[in-house]
Design a protein that fits this description.
Elements: H1 2-6, E1 12-17, H2 19-31, E2 36-42, H3 84-94, H4 102-114, H5 118-122, E3 128-133, H6 142-150, E4 154-159, H7 166-169, H8 171-184
Parallel strand pairs: 1-2, 2-3, 3-4
């Protein structure tokens, strides 16, 4: 929000994948939508813990399994090979990427898992697109359908055959969906 204010940005379209989508809902919960034109959430359930009437969370994660859930490795996020052009671009521009450190990430993962962004989604009065991987290893694609129903101006797309990394696994299809959505605003 400080960046948006400093640059006097308005009609911003926020696009977030995975935890980046949760960051969008944290922004909306804190600052509202006055500076936003639309939001796009890519394969992220707004509530990762399954309980009661919410079963669109992370497979196997509920209040009983939460304390030890992240002790086991998470499944590979993708179902398809990543776009070779994208991986070559990243390799050429990313530099040395340190190995993932689960011990460092664990507090963040628990915070991420404990969040429930459904109220923020219901209060989002700008268009919201929810994109889901049809074969996400983390949660059912139904989360996108349910989130779109929750958002006042929600819509959804499910990319069949894709895992969690929709924007990497099916980059051409993802880009077409995103650009079509932006043109429709």
């Amino acid at each position: 929000n400080a960046l948006f204010e400093a640059l006097d940005l308005h009609d911003v379209i926020l696009v977030g994948q995975s935890q980046g989508a949760s960051t969008i809902w944290a922004y909306v919960a804190q600052f509202g939508t006055a500076r936003l034109k639309a939001v796009v959430s890519v394969d992220q359930s707004p509530k990762m813990i399954n309980e009661g009437d919410w079963q669109d969370g992370m497979y196997g994660l509920d209040t009983q399994t939460r304390p030890t859930f992240f002790a086991s490795p998470l499944p590979a996020p993708n179902r398809q090979p990543l776009d070779p052009g994208l991986t070559a671009f990243l390799a050429a521009h990313a530099g040395e990427v340190p190995a993932f450190d689960m011990a460092l990430a664990l507090p963040l993962l628990f915070d991420h898992a404990d969040a429930d962004w459904r109220d923020a989604i219901a209060a989002t009065d700008v268009p919201a697109l929810f994109i889901a991987g049809g074969e996400s290893p983390f949660w059912p694609p139904q989360h996108a359908v349910d989130m779109a129903a929750l958002a006042p101006k929600g819509s959804f797309r499910i990319v069949e055959g894709s895992g969690h990394a929709v924007n990497w696994e099916f980059s051409d299809a993802f880009n077409a969906i995103l650009l079509d959505y932006i043109r429709s605003l």
